[in-house]
Design a protein that fits this description.
Residues 237-496 form the YjeF C-terminal domain. In the C-terminal section; belongs to the NnrD/CARKD family. GO terms for molecular function: ADP-dependent NAD(P)H-hydrate dehydratase activity; ATP binding; metal ion binding; NAD(P)HX epimerase activity. With 496 residues, the chain is an alpha/beta fold. The protein starts with a strand and ends with a helix. It has 17 helices and 20 strands. The strands form three sheets. Strands 7-1-11-20-19-18-17-16-15-12-13-14 form a twelve-stranded mixed β-sheet, sandwiched between helices. A six-stranded parallel β-sheet has the order 3-2-4-5-6-10, sandwiched between helices. It has a two-stranded antiparallel ribbon with strand order 8-9. The protein has two domains: 6-230, YjeF N-terminal domain (Rossmann fold); 239-493, UDP-N-acetylmuramoyl-L-alanine:D-glutamate ligase (3-Layer(aba) Sandwich). It has helices spanning 9-22, 27-41, 43-46, 60-74, 90-103, 109-118, 141-152, 239-246, 270-282, 297-304, 315-319, 322-326, 380-387, 394-408, 443-455, 461-472, 485-493, and strands spanning 3-7, 51-56, 79-83, 124-129, 156-162, 187-191, 194-195, 202-204, 207-208, 211-214, 232-235, 259-263, 287-292, 309-312, 329-332, 353-356, 374-376, 411-414, 419-422, 428-431.
């Protein structure tokens, strides 16, 4: 799996302190390395600006801003620096003094407003270095007014934030509007560590704003201790591996190519379980069987394909079917209208992977089945129903699920524009690749079938989730703006 560690604000501070106090890095050196990495990462962007304004705060984030201002000036750019107040750190004071010596002066907030009133529309690139990831609490009235001016002004054609957008706090989402004042950054440059609190940064509905990571020499690989790391990872797409993994080998037979059992499709909802199974079989699955409470299931299945196996039954009867003993994966839920009581307390066979989707997502208090490889795949509404809590951010969902998953020994994949997998051992994985083409009826059923396909190949649940999401990412390339789930599946089948 391709993944990178995500650090909380507290963990990032611990690594920063470790680098300075134990490894002997000079704070000025780290600030300089941070600024240099941002400069080189955005060389094409700087060239688009008539003028670059950098707003610097009083902490380390402000120090990074001063350091960047110095580099930009020396490289010939028209740069202006403004301070909300004098910098408090020794390293920050060093760069503030350096900038003052080369620019002649560092403006204050009052100067910022005066020059802003005279600036032309779309003439300024703004760098936000006001508040870093360590900021907690409420903004002062002065800073809130400043940030709202930045957001509302047509003077700034681009807003680049260092480390995090000043004022951003994912735990304020869903609260009163006045607590949600933050810079509407067009992009964020994360310095030294990838930041957990930045995951899901949005200011437009379901639109994740780009974040770029810049290495500055932090010891993030050699010091992944329990103190400095909380087992959160950022997943990167691996589309080619996802495709190659699905391709059958010459020596495969129907079981080694992957087997799966599907249960779902209440009356009138049979299409959901059929689509889920179709995703599994058309992507190379060797053998499968569909069970459903619907009396129509056999006629619907055999009408499409006489080679399919299908049966009308209760879920309890499915557990007794000989096919279950031969298969590795079972998907329950697509097309069901309510949580099956037969799942409550069911002891899942040791080597069987169970995927619970849609109608098989339990409500709060419903007893779960017992096993060591159970994956629940709720969307946000189902997660709220499942836990009895409302969640407005990925971070809030994580806080709930870290206890839920360990307490029930289950894996949970939260499906949203940012997807989150939380594992019973406390590890978690974030997938941040919004795909509006999946916002259509049936794509959840599609995902459950694709997950079953990877699970049937003896991949672990985290590996299967990574491969399934990477594979589904190919649907972004469809020319159809609003494809149906069947159109998406057809395009994916062509890849393998």
């Amino acid at each position: 799996m391709k993944y990178n560690p995500l650090f909380t604000n507290k963990e990032s501070k611990a690594i920063d302190s470790l680098a300075i106090k134990e490894l002997g890095f000079q704070e000025e050196t780290l600030m300089g390395m941070a600024a240099l990495s941002v400069f080189h990462a955005n060389e094409d962007l700087w060239k688009t600006a008539e003028s670059i304004w950098i707003l610097c705060g009083t902490g380390g984030n402000g120090g990074d801003g001063y350091s960047l201002a110095y580099i930009l000036h020396q490289e010939g750019y028209n740069v202006r620096c403004f301070s909300t107040a004098p910098n408090k750190s020794e390293a920050g004071k060093f760069y503030e003094s350096l900038v003052t010596s080369v620019l002649g002066a560092v403006g204050n907030v009052e100067d910022f407003y005066k020059e802003w009133e005279e600036a032309k529309e779309d003439s300024i690139l703004l760098v936000d270095a006001i508040l870093g990831t360590g900021f907690q609490g409420n903004l002062s009235e002065e800073l809130a007014d400043l940030i709202e001016t930045i957001n509302d002004s047509d003077v700034f054609f681009y807003r680049l934030s260092l480390d995090t957008a000043s004022g951003w706090n994912p735990y304020n989402l869903g609260k009163k509007e006045e607590t949600n004042v933050f810079v509407y950054a067009d992009s964020i440059e994360e310095l030294g560590t990838r930041k957990w609190e930045n995951v899901g940064f949005i200011y437009e509905k379901d639109s994740v704003i780009p974040r770029y990571y810049e290495a500055i020499g932090f010891p993030i690989r050699t010091h992944l201790s329990n103190v400095t790391f909380s087992n959160r990872y950022y997943l990167e797409a691996d589309p080619e591996t996802a495709i190659q993994t699905l391709k059958r080998k010459n020596k495969d037979h129907k079981y080694s190519a992957g087997s799966a059992l599907f249960y779902g499709g209440s009356d009138g909802m049979e299409g959901a379980i059929l689509l889920s199974e179709q995703a599994f079989s058309r992507l190379g699955g060797g053998i499968s069987k569909i069970f459903s409470p619907s009396l129509k299931i056999s006629s619907l299945v055999l009408k499409e394909d006489l080679s399919k196996m299908t049966k009308t039954s209760s879920l309890a009867e499915t557990f007794e079917d000989p096919f279950l003993k031969k298969t590795k994966t079972i998907v329950v839920g697509p097309g069901l209208t309510q949580y099956p009581n037969d799942l409550s307390g069911w002891s899942v066979p040791e080597d069987l992977r169970l995927v619970l989707d849609a109608g098989a997502i339990p409500t709060k208090g419903s007893p779960l089945p017992k096993g060591n490889q159970i994956l629940l795949t709720p969307h946000v509404g189902e997660l709220n129903r499942m836990t009895g809590k409302t969640h407005h951010s990925v971070q809030a969902a994580y806080d709930t699920l870290i206890d839920y998953c360990s307490g029930n020994y289950v894996y949970v994949l939260l499906k949203s524009f940012v997807s989150l997998l939380v594992c019973p051992d406390g590890s978690s994985y974030v997938w941040e690749s919004p795909n509006p083409k999946l916002a259509t009826m049936g794509t959840g059923d599609l995902l459950s079938g694709i997950l079953a396909r990877y699970l049937s190949l003896d991949l672990t649940i985290p590996e299967s989730v990574h491969m399934a999401l990477s594979f589904l990412d190919h649907s972004k390339q469809l020319e159809e703006p609003y494809p149906s789930a069947h159109q998406i599946l057809k395009s994916l089948v062509e890849l393998v």
